[in-house]
Amino acid sequence: MTCVLRPRTTLRTVTCPIYLLKDQRPFSPQNQHRTFIDSLLNSALGPCPLRSLTHTKTIPYSSDAIFKAVSDVSGYPSFLPFTISSHVTSRDSNGYPTRAKLKVGYAKLGLEEDWDSVVKCNPEDGTIEARSSESGSHGMFEVLSTKWKIDTVPDGKSQRTLVKLDVDVKFRNPVYDQMFAQVEEKVANTMISAFEKRVQEIDKSK
What is the overall mean pLDDT for the chain? Predict the structure, then answer.
């Protein structure tokens, strides 16, 4: 009879200080691969330009109704093109959003991007601004910001509002930038039209 002696394995518990885990992001091979490709294309084709879009339109609804629709960030996926999902993560004392996480994209091109947005709503001067946060600026967009200016038309005849939308966008990948260049003239107009339709739906439901 042969007796085999096996070494005993001792299990040790290693405690990791909580400060080493704080703010650590999960490893994503897909994001790392995309960052490498973006850097390679930027080296070959040059950096992407900052694209600034502006569109102005007079809408036959009150400025309060339009401001309410634009500031309803959580409702964007139900009517706003290119918005897949939206979750407001913080609000100010008046209930307006100050921070939101959105997933934006273009289904036909298979593009999706999570966008951590810092929002500022000022009903007194009729402005709503949203920009990418520092912590969420490592994806498809190097810069993504929007500014709405909503003003009542003082003609005294009917409810009319002058709406101006400014969009600044800068891609990290030149390929995405060139695809966007094909439709950039339509983007701001499409967004304003979507909000106009939303206000019309809300008005009819009253």
Answer: 77
